[in-house]
Amino acid sequence: MLQVGDNRLTSEQLIQSLVKYQMMPQLLGELIIDNVIAEIKLTPTEAKSACEQLAARYQLTSPEQRRFWLQKNGLTSEQLDEIAIRQCKIEKFKQINWGGDLDSYFRQRKPQLDRVIYSLLRTNDIGIAQELYFRISEGEQSFAELVREYSQGSEVETDGVIGPVELQSIHPVIAKILSSVQPQQLVPPTQVGEWIVLMRLEKIISAKLDEMTRQRLINERFHEWLQAQIQAQKWQIGYGEEEITDGIRKVECGREMVLQ
C-alpha cells in the first residue's frame, strides 16, 4: 500500500500507474542492473567510502541532518547505506565492462566531442548576406559590427560569437561545415533552415581523453547497453485473470511481474 496525501494505491494500482505513466522501462532497467551487480563484491573499505561519499553529497554532516534527511525522504539509515553500496557496485560494473576499452570508442566519438568557437550572422535575405560576405572579405567592416547591425538572431548579444560548444550540439549543417574549414576561414552565405547564414570558425578545441571524458564515455556505453537490455526484455504483469503483457511468451504469474 502506498499513500500519497489522501490517495491510497494498492500494489496492483501502483504497477498499473507505472505502466500508465510510462515508467515501466525505468523499473525494468533498475531490475536488470540489480541482476548484473549481484555478484560484484565490495571490500569493507569500499563500502565505508561509498556510504561516506553519499552522505557528503547530501551534506549529511551531523546526526541531526542525517535524521531529518532520512525522514524527509522516507528512508531508514540502513536503506541509505544500501543505496550508496548499490551505486558503488554500479560504478564498479561500468569500470569492469567498459573502463579498459575506451580508446577506439573515443576516436569514434571525438568528431562530435570537439568544441568550437565560431562567429555567426543570420538573415533571411540572400542579397544582404552576399553583400556582407564581401564587406567582411574585403576588410571593410568587422564581423562583429555587421552582426550588431544586420543579424536577426540572439547571437547579436555576443557580437556573433558562439561557444565553446560541442559540434554534436549544434545544427548538423553548421557542424559539418565548421569541421571542414580552418580557423579564421570565412564561409560563404549558406542556407540553414529558414536562414541564410555567414560563419567564421574562430577556434577549434580538440577533445582529450582525460578523466572527465573517460567517465562520460563509460556512462554513455553503460546507458547504451542498458537501453538495449530494456528493449530486448520481455515482461508480463498478471492480476488474477487480467494481464498486461509486453512480449510473445505467455507466463502465468498471479500477482507478480515476471521478466523473461
Write a structural description:
The two termini are 26 Å apart. It is elongated and about 70 Å long. The protein is 50% helix and 20% strand. The strands form three sheets. Strands 4-3-6-5 form a four-stranded antiparallel beta sheet, with helices on both faces. Strands 8-7-9 form a three-stranded antiparallel beta sheet, with no helix packed on it. It has two domains: 28-101 and 212-259, no CATH class; 115-205, Chitinase A, domain 3, CATH 3.10.50. Mean pLDDT is 91; it is low at 247-260. It is built from ten helices and nine strands. Strand 7 (235-239) and strand 8 (242-246) form a beta hairpin. The chain has 260 residues and is an alpha+beta fold.
How does the overall form come out from the CA principal axes? elongated
- N-C termini distance: 26 Å
Number of strands: 9
Structural class: alpha+beta
Quick overview:
The protein is an alpha+beta fold. It has helices spanning 11-20, 24-37, 44-57, 63-73, 77-98, 103-113, 126-137, 143-150, 172-178, 211-232, and strands at 2-4, 7-9, 115-123, 161-166, 186-192, 195-205, 235-239, 242-246, 257-259.
Notable features of this structure?
260 residues, alpha+beta, Chitinase A, domain 3, 2 domains, four-stranded antiparallel sheet, three-stranded antiparallel sheet, 10 helices, disordered C terminus
